[in-house]
């Protein structure tokens, strides 16, 4: 069997995972149902179709790569050396825990599972009255790392006129776009244009072309400079932190999810009135919702400007490692302490413009790029450390997950809503994901179940903030 080595960032995601913080992303799709048996029929279809999707047969296993501990530690230490003393104390405990764990040398690879059985991955549950409550419980459970790391949970509705499917994919198996591709392959067939084949990779020799040596040297120096720049930016971002205790917590291992649907036309009206992009508006809505939520729970929003990590896809069509994660990110301050909704949007727009001008390969949000500079053993040893450092790096994740513009069906039942659900980083109480589907925007909220028992209040605040922005932008 041919094995495909995990790209560095995939390997990082594989090793960051812990029991309290599983590294799977998910989507909760809600379908109309033609009959009370539609959910059971959907489960049968998912199981029968999964066997024909090669990407769903791929498991991840450890592989041996000849690399000594002495060679790995300097490479592990170098990209993070610029982070400075603020991280040292925070990393001491996870480092001790890491060294106590059995060492599995080398990297990991994807390979076809010879014993793949779709019935191990597709589960039909009892009828549910609240799809999000059921999804929260299912999000708590890590995926089985000995099998292809994905699951599809079918939740029939107690009302008999709807059912939901929760798709879970490990981040090492797929990023948002790849997960979408895998899930869409299980939907009803559609008449779509045949994609152009990806050109074969050019064979590479063992030694570099002598004529390219100057270019390689310049590239190495540029990479080193970029790593130092990212490290210094992260260090600066830890200074003068103005966040809220409500966004941090000790992990409980529990999860809650909630979903909000807003009209895309409202978002466009706001964008046309104030300027910026649709994404700027959607991020500003999160800032305003956080303000309302913090004030409602009594924590207060005065002086609060949490750091939001905004992932940026670096994926290009027909590039190498089509299955791998290719991510960078922007780090911005959410102006939660600004009372005026239009002023909040303008501040978000200015912050995003500054990040775009600098580009996604520099700055504190680009830490994911450092994964390329760490050898496999470094990821094995440093994964838990990096996970624990997330709280020092950013306060809340706000990510956008692309969805197709056309309607999807499963067993003839139309997909009416789909809520993306992001992994929750260690020390964080909340993660936000956003998708646009069929003229509506879907916010998916994931929270630590014990730290955020009032997640429904935050969901209501999202809708209230859109209403406030729309009212503020109406002609006077």
What does this structure look like?
By secondary structure, the chain is an alpha+beta fold. It folds into two domains: 3-60 and 109-184, Chloramphenicol Acetyltransferase (2-Layer Sandwich); 224-473, Nonribosomal peptide synthetase, condensation domain (Chloramphenicol Acetyltransferase, 2-Layer Sandwich), CATH 3.30.559.30. Helix content is 37%, strand content 20%. It is built from twelve helices and 15 strands. It has helices at 8-16, 38-50, 69-77, 85-100, 131-139, 176-184, 213-237, 264-274, 278-296, 341-358, 376-393, 455-473; strands at residues 3-5, 24-32, 58-62, 108-112, 122-124, 150-156, 162-170, 255-263, 307-313, 327-333, 396-400, 409-410, 413-421, 430-437, 440-448. It has a six-stranded mixed sheet, with helices on both faces. Helix 1 packs across helix 11 (376-393), helix 9 crosses helix 10 and helix 9 crosses helix 12 (455-473). The longest helix has 25 residues, at 213-237. Residues 67-84, 95-104, 198-213, 215-225, 317-321 and 364-371 have low confidence and may be disordered.
Arithmetic mean of pLDDT: 80
Shape: globular
Q: Which strand order spans the largest sheet, edge to edge or round the barrel?
A: 5-6-7-2-13-12
Number of helices: 12
Overall domain count = 2
Largest sheet: 6 strands, mixed
State the share of residues found in helices, binned by percent.
25-40%
Structural class from helices and strands? alpha+beta
- Give me the Rg, rounded: 22 Å
């Amino acid at each position: 069997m041919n094995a495909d080595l995990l790209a560095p960032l995939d390997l990082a995601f594989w090793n960051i995972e812990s029991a309290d913080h599983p590294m799977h992303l998910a989507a909760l799709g809600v379908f109309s149902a033609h009959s009370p048996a539609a959910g059971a029929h959907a489960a049968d279809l998912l199981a029968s179709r999964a066997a024909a999707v090669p990407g769903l047969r791929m498991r991840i296993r450890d592989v041996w790569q000849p690399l000594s501990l002495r060679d790995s530690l300097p490479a592990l230490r170098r990209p993070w050396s610029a982070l400075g003393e603020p991280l040292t104390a925070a990393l001491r405990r996870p480092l001790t825990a890491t060294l106590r764990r059995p060492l599995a040398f080398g990297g990991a690879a994807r390979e076809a599972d010879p014993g793949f059985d779709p019935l191990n991955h597709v589960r039909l549950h009892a009828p549910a009255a609240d799809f999000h409550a059921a999804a929260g419980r299912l999000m708590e459970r890590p995926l089985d790392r000995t099998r292809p790391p994905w699951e599809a949970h079918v939740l029939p509705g107690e009302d008999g006129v709807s059912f939901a499917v929760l798709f879970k994919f490990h981040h090492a198996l797929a990023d948002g776009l790849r997960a979408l591709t895998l899930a869409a392959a299980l939907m009803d067939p559609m008449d779509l244009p045949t994609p152009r084949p990806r050109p074969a990779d050019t064979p590479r020799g063992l030694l570099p072309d002598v004529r390219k040596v100057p270019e390689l040297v310049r590239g190495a120096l540029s990479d080193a400079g970029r790593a130092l720049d990212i490290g210094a930016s992260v260090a600066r971002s830890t200074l003068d932190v103005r966040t809220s205790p409500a966004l941090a917590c000790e992990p409980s291992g529990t999860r809650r999810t909630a979903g909000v649907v807003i009209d895309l036309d409202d978002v466009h009206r706001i964008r046309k009135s104030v300027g910026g992009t649709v994404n700027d508006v959607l991020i500003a809505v999160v800032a305003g919702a956080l303000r309302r939520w913090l004030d409602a729970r009594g924590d207060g929003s005065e002086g609060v400007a949490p750091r939001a990590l905004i992932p940026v896809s670096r994926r290009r069509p027909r590039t190498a490692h089509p299955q791998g994660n290719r991510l960078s990110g922007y780090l911005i301050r959410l102006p939660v302490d600004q009372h005026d909704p239009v002023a909040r949007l303008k501040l978000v727009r200015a912050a995003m413009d500054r990040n775009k001008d600098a580009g996604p390969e520099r700055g504190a949000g680009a830490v994911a790029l450092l994964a390329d500079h760490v050898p496999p053993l470094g990821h094995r040893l440093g994964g838990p450390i990096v996970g624990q450092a997330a709280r020092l790096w950013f306060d809340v994740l706000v990510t956008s997950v692309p969805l197709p513009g056309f309607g999807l069906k499963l067993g003839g039942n139309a997909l009416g809503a789909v809520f993306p659900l992001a992994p929750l980083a260690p020390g964080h109480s909340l993660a936000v994901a956003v998708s646009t589907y069929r003229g509506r925007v879907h916010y998916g909220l994931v929270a630590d179940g014990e730290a955020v028992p009032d997640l429904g209040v935050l969901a209501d605040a999202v809708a209230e903030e859109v209403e406030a922005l729309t009212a503020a932008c109406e002609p006077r």
